[in-house]
Amino acid sequence: MSSQLIIKTVLIALFAIMGIIMVFPRQGARPLAIRRLVTLVFIAAAILAVLNPEWLSQLAAFVGVGRGTDLVLYVLVVLFFGQMVATRTHSAAMDRKITDLARAVAISRAPDPATAMTLPPAGPEDRSTP
Asked: What angle is formed at CA 128 by the lines to CA 122 and CA 130, rounded to 5 degrees?
């Protein structure tokens, strides 16, 4: 049972980190750079796993997972949740940008209050459709 402690600790830590990122998202170039580096590391690990599958089995035994394929499954689940976190963060940032843009457009199209008071209100026949 103690051999499984490593994988359990690693998985719980990764899921906790992803949960924190979802609650407190960060924006900017640094998270993007980290994401790219992690992607490169996983690509290198995948190539090594294909070239030397026995290493994957040894790593799985070291961290307390029964087989290398189970370790691959765990890694894929972590990557899936990581992608969900990244997508949610990106979507929230885009929503904020769209909201700011819509506000700016609405403000720019708003009539000037000084001239709006002097002009008579337009009737239904005077309104033009865009």
From this structure: 135
Lowest model confidence (mean pLDDT) among 21-25, 42-46, 66-70, 91-95: 21-25
Amino acid at 51: L
Q: List the structure tokens of 108.
A: 């720019």
| Residue numbers of the domain that contains 80 | 2-105
Number of structural domains the chain divides into:
1
Interior/surface letters 31-69, b for 16+ CB within 10 angstroms, e for the rest:
eeeeeeeeeeeeeeeeeebeeeeeebbeebeebbbeebe
Residue 87 included in any domain: yes
The answer to whether residue 111 is domain-embedded is no
For residues 86 and 25, the model is more confident at 86
Q: Residue 56: CB partners within 8 Å, gap ≥ 6?
A: 49, 68, 71, 72
**Does residue 123 lie within any of the structural domains?**
no
Q: What is the pLDDT of residues 50-81, one digit of tens each?
A: 888 899 899 899 888 889 889 889 888 888 88
Whole-model pTM: value is 0.60
